[in-house]
Amino acid sequence: MRERFEYAVVWMVLRVLGALPRTLARALGHAVALLAYFALSKLRRVGLRNLDIAFPRMPRKQKKTILRRLYGGLGRQLVEFCRFPKYTRRNIEEIAVYEGFENYERARRAGKGVFFLTGHFGGWEVGSFATSVYGNPLRIVVRELDHPLVNTLVNCYRTLHGNVLMDNRDFVRGIIGAVRAGETVGILMDTNMTPPQGVFVDYFGELACTASGMARIALRTGAAVVPAFTLWDEVLRKYKIIFDEPLTLLRTGDDEADAVANTAMFTRKIEEYARRYPDQWMWLHRRWKTRPEGGGKIY
Q1: Are the C-beta atoms of 220 and 213 separated by less than 8 Å?
Q2: 3-class SS at 228?
Q3: Which pTM value belongs to this model?
Q4: CB of 69 within 8 A of CB of 279?
Q5: Among 88, 211, 250, 273, which is most exposed with the fewest C-beta within 10 angstroms?
Q6: pLDDT tens for residues 24-82?
Q7: Distance of CA 263 to the CA centre of its chain
Q8: SS3 229
């Protein structure tokens, strides 16, 4: 009974926010997000702790401003997610445009598959969805939501225009097959992991356990790694899906060392964007939860 009630609530939110005019829906989404900022004190503390690690000299007032803006961005993305069924190739430019698409095209033409190196920035759900609407569907590695009915509903929205979802618990074989077939796979590389799937690399001066699968598979298959981030642009009042040039992987012949070194390089790219757009990265996640041997607890 409880699961059905929760599903009904989520379904209602999707339908109501999706039906409202965008301006009104965004105002409502922003209000809900700010309410969450003040109500969810535990997440707020995690966010401030992460910002203390990343920007130790930044004034506390500025860190709180970053978190409020982050919540506002989450509210905005929620609204656009609810509106996914409204978007087609004819109107997708109303919410998202490409920048640097030629970098992706060049990588794709090589024919060995492409990895999108990305993270929880700005409008990550909007980015993968809009890319599929533009005619470039992806395989996306996702973690299933705990609520089965809600998980099915959310995934229905994510796959409206051809995206294919891959469970993060059993994806290696599927990814290898996809890139060898010349497909594109998107992986969010900015979440806490545990060994052996994760290796410790530097992130904002602190060791963070980070998924090494992308590096290992890219080294094995020759797939290109293209940094791709979806960021809100205040001037355009829409999202920009930014594609950087493909990264050049380190290849020394030592597979394990190369996997760690390239994972570190990928993480530096994510840190670069988090420093440039601090109010658009997901500081609410316990990124440094897994500690190296002898490392003290952070949270």
Answers
A1: no
A2: strand
A3: 0.94
A4: yes
A5: 88
A6: 999 999 999 999 999 999 999 999 999 999 999 999 999 999 999 999 999 999 999 99
A7: 16
A8: strand
